[in-house]
Structure formats: C-alpha cells, structure tokens
Design brief:
The protein is mainly β. It folds into three domains: about 60 residues, SH3 type barrels (Roll), CATH 2.30.30.30; about 60 residues, OB fold (Dihydrolipoamide Acetyltransferase, E2P); about 60 residues, OB fold (Dihydrolipoamide Acetyltransferase, E2P), CATH 2.40.50.140. The chain contains one helix and 16 strands. The strands form three sheets. It has a six-stranded antiparallel β-sheet, with no helix packed on it. Strands 9-8-7-10-11 form a five-stranded antiparallel β-sheet. It has a five-stranded antiparallel β-sheet with strand order 14-13-12-15-16, with no helix packed on it. Strand 13 and strand 14 form a beta hairpin. The chain is flat, with a radius of gyration of 21 Å. The model has no long low-confidence stretch (mean pLDDT about 90).
C-alpha cells in the first residue's frame, strides 16, 4: 500500500479512509495567510456513493486504496435489474446494484465489455472511458429558423440516453460523447 502526502491527493486517485475506498473528485491546495498549506478535496465514497469534502493538512498522510480492475460483459437490463456475465465464462451471470453502476449504463451498449473497479474482491463500480462512440437511434429533423447561436436538438442514443446535439446529426450516425459531462463531442465516420 502506497502512502500519499497531502499534496499527492489529486483528481482520479483512490484513497482509503477508515477502511472505506474513496475516489478523489477534485482537489485544491491553498494557503490561508501565514498558515501551512491545506488540500481541500472533494471525495466520493465508492461504497455508498455519497460525496463529501475533507481538508488534508500538510502533516497528514493517507493510504492509497488497493483497487484492482477486471472486465465483465453487460448483457441487458430488465425489470429494474442489470445483468452481467464473466468474460471467460458466459454462464456465470449476475446482477449489479444501481449504486454500483451509477449512470454508467447511459454510455454502455448491450453486449459490450465493461471495465470494473474491484475492492476487497468485490465489484464496487464500473469504469467508463472518458469518450465513447454511440449510435444515434432517434434524431428529429433539423428545422430552419433560429440558428444564429448554432441551434441544437435532443437526440436519443442506442443506450436510451437523451443528449443535446447539433442540428446536422441524423439517425444512424455515430457520435462521440464525453462521459464526464454527458455532452456531444463530435460526429464519427460510420464504423459498422
């Protein structure tokens, strides 16, 4: 286990506080007047999903959480359950709870491989790439008119997620989405 100093607690690091893993969502090192520096961090519990803020002083050290990664296959969702299977053994099927999944399924099509976060031999979260390419299922036709500011419309993706996109996007297009913000990035050449 690696020990982190207060200034090494930065965004996207995993730390262990009182036996519970946290992801650092944001951090900011500052100094008030003549005092020692402080790292103000925004932490998300990977077990409960709650977000808290905590100040780490210059003398504090914290353990880096031992996170492992694995891969599983997302099969389908139905009746409030989300079904997955092991990549090596498709007969080994299981469900994951909504607080483990979060909003990751908005960016994961069915029958695709997903990276997992494993802590203490238990899946506690899904890791979605920062940018994903998805098929547009529904896109209303562009309407001429008030486009002086660049106009946008709501488009539905193959996963069922609804996002705002530019007027030139049509059904059947593939687009790249930023999963951190849930926003349209660019259109991609048709790949299938």
């Amino acid at each position: 286990m690696a020990i982190l100093n207060y200034n090494e607690i930065v965004k996207r690091k995993y730390i262990d506080i009182d036996g519970e893993p946290f992801e650092v969502m944001d951090s900011w090192v500052f100094r008030k007047q003549q005092r020692k520096p402080v790292n103000q961090a925004k932490l998300k519990s990977l077990i409960s999903g709650k977000v808290t803020e905590r100040a780490f002083h210059a003398t504090e050290k914290v353990e880096e959480a031992e996170m492992e990664s694995g891969t599983i296959k997302y099969l389908y969702s139905g009746k409030g359950e989300h079904w997955f299977c092991d990549n090596e053994n498709p007969q080994d099927r299981f469900t994951l709870d909504n607080n483990v999944i979060g909003d990751a399924l908005k960016y994961i099509p069915t029958n695709s491989t997903v990276n997992t976060l494993v802590y203490d031999e238990k899946i506690i979260g899904l890791k979605v790439p920062i940018k994903v390419e998805l098929l547009v299922k529904e896109a209303p036709p562009a309407v001429r008119g008030n486009t002086a500011q660049g106009g946008s419309k709501q488009i539905t993706l193959e996963t069922g997620a609804i996002i705002n996109g530019p007027l030139f996007i049509n059904e059947g297009d593939y687009i790249r989405i930023n999963t951190d913000t849930g926003e349209y990035v660019e259109r991609v050449d048709n790949k299938k």
